[in-house]
Amino acid sequence: MKKGIFISLEGPEGAGKTSVLEALIPQLKEMGCQIVTTREPGGVAISEKIREVILDRGHTAMDAKTELLLYIASRRQHLAEKVLPALEKGTWVLQDRFIDSSVAYQGYGRGLAVDEVEWLNRFATDGLKPDLTLYFDIDVKEGLARIARNKDREVNRLDLEGLDLHERVRQGYLTILEKEPERVIKIDASQPLDQVVADSLEAIRERFAEEK
């Protein structure tokens, strides 16, 4: 049975999720939280291999359903091998992307049936959802411009997609936010990083004030 706290970080490309996650770690540890951080796709050896296939810039011929199924396979292995054991020990898990990414990118972005994407998510996770999802919202053009300016960031196959797909992805996230406002908290990612981190920490503290 799950005992820990599961927090996912979501957002369109260039929203700064990874930077926020790294900044949150020391602050949450100061609160006495035992933390595991991880990412999707990836997080464990098998899932990292799948990540290489998904994000390879040479795999432009990849079919949308193939892409979705690879993400789902990566998710299941990662969950079974790393996330669930950590939660069962009472650890806080902070994860860069989870089920909402598949809905936003492959559902709304690629045009696959959202209800089928959601079914596959439930199948892979046995219905597990994060206790809290921080959604980092940013204008698509601004997010892509950040990526272009950041020479150290990995440029993957999804970064090469057209603006229309990224716009659909953002709208998909906003739709998820409307459907599940109790789980998903919107953070303005266009602000300076320090403020985004502060807003994120406040949202976590408000939700889990009794936890430690």
From TrEMBL:
ATP binds at residues 11-18. Residues 9-198 form the Thymidylate kinase-like domain. Its EC number is 2.7.4.9. Keywords: ATP-binding, Kinase, Nucleotide biosynthesis, Nucleotide-binding, Transferase. It catalyses: dTMP + ATP = dTDP + ADP. One of its GO terms (biological process) is dTTP biosynthetic process. GO terms for molecular function: ATP binding; dTMP kinase activity. The keyword Isomerase does not apply. InterPro entries: P-loop_NTPase, Thymidylate_kin-like_dom, Thymidylate_kinase. Gene3D superfamilies: P-loop containing nucleotide triphosphate hydrolases. SUPFAM superfamilies: P-loop containing nucleoside triphosphate hydrolases. One of its GO terms (cellular component) is cytosol. It is an enzyme of class 2 (transferase). It comes from the Bacteria. Belongs to the thymidylate kinase family. NCBIfam families: DTMP_kinase (TIGR00041). Phosphorylation of dTMP to form dTDP in both de novo and salvage pathways of dTTP synthesis. This is Thymidylate kinase. It comes from Streptococcus sinensis. The lineage of its organism: Bacteria, Bacillati, Bacillota, Bacilli, Lactobacillales. The gene is tmk.
